[in-house]
Design goal:
Blueprint: H1 4-21, H2 30-48, H3 52-81, H4 83-97, H5 100-114, H6 118-126, H7 138-185, H8 197-206, H9 208-224, H10 229-239, H11 249-259, E1 263-269, E2 272-279, H12 288-315
Antiparallel strand pairs: 1-2
Helix pairs in contact: 1-4, 2-3, 2-7, 3-4, 3-7, 3-8, 4-7, 5-6, 5-7, 6-7, 7-8, 7-9, 7-11, 7-12, 9-10, 9-11, 9-12, 10-11
């Protein structure tokens, strides 16, 4: 079993590696393997289990179970080989579970393109959002980037870090399996509405605490980031549930309040305009400064979670 000192070193090392290097795309990535497992299981489960919803439940159980078991086994076997090997494997699995740097880099491509090429910015945005982007003007492109960073601060940064702190690399990888399942089969279309039901609902459950924690962390981080902490708290309380997702509205509301902007509203999907509830008040226009602010909130929230965890360990005398 990993000592508390090793666990702290793994967490701090993983956060640092993610901040400096981002996602190690050139190395084997557990999420790629998880995605391949999901794709490989879908056909056989649909054929073998007549009840489509039950087949989806089995997909969830098998995928998350295998992901956790393999991650835990790799760590255990590496520690048996040598403590240094166990530490390295733990560090790598923790590192690839975090996505702050990647989220920053991918969203920054949108804003950077806006400086000279709006069509290129629309295209870059289309890679990170589900809405149609071909006709968006600059404020709407910025809104898409801000909403993406705010929402994914919850499920791409704070949630995996929360589970890493709670249960080590294996639990963080299990969370990534849940998140990957939702992104692959958690759609409300004819193909997945029944098969992906369990994955979508379990993703909601897994993100319930982290999403609300993200909102609170953003409130606390806002004044440290030169933003409006009081506004973040007010809009979090007022508009945190103004979203079709039971979780995504909390980080988006805190971000909107901190930035003094309005998020939500009309989006176009498959040629049809969908009116979504608005989040926040339009005190300031959506601008590149809004995007820079939400990126600071993301990093500030992550730093506060790590600092709070270390303070709690010190308070109880663990360190």
């Amino acid at each position: 079993m990993m000592s508390i000192d090793a666990h702290i070193a793994v967490v701090l090392g993983a956060v640092l590696l993610d901040l400096v290097l981002g996602d190690p795309r050139a190395l084997p990535h557990p999420v790629v393997g998880i995605g391949e497992l999901i794709s490989a299981l879908e056909g056989p489960l649909r054929r073998m289990v007549p009840n489509v919803r039950l087949a989806g439940v089995l997909l969830l159980v098998i995928t998350v179970g295998v992901s956790y078991a393999l991650a835990a086994s790799f760590v255990y076997a590496a520690y048996l080989l040598a403590p240094a090997a166990g530490f390295v494997v733990s560090l790598y699995l923790a590192w690839v579970s975090l996505a702050a740097r990647s989220l920053h880099l991918e969203s920054a491509k949108v804003v950077q393109a806006l400086q000279s090429d709006v069509p290129a910015a629309r295209l870059a945005l289309s890679y990170i959002v589900g809405r149609e982007t071909a006709e968006l003007d600059e404020p709407e492109i910025i809104r898409g980037a801000v909403e993406t960073v705010a929402e994914n601060t919850g499920d791409g940064v704070i949630a995996p870090l929360f589970y890493l702190l709670l249960g080590g690399p294996a639990l963080a990888i299990a969370y990534k399996a849940v998140n990957t399942l939702d992104s692959m089969v958690g759609y409300k279309n004819e193909r997945f509405i029944e098969f992906g039901w369990a994955s979508a609902r379990f993703d909601d459950l897994a993100n319930y605490v982290p999403a609300r924690l993200t909102g609170l962390l953003m409130v606390l981080a806002a004044p440290l980031c030169g933003l409006n902490g009081g506004g973040a708290w007010r809009i979090l309380r007022r508009d945190g549930r103004n979203h079709s997702s039971p979780n995504s509205g909390f980080p988006e509301a805190a971000a909107a309040g901190a930035l003094g902007v309005r998020l939500g509203g009309a989006n176009r999907y498959f040629g049809k305009i969908i009116e979504k509830p608005t989040i926040g008040d339009p005190l300031l226009p959506l601008s590149r400064e809004s995007y820079a602010g939400v990126v600071r909130l993301m990093y500030g929230s992550e730093a506060l979670l790590v600092a709070g965890w270390l303070a709690a360990l010190a308070l109880v005398g663990v360190i």
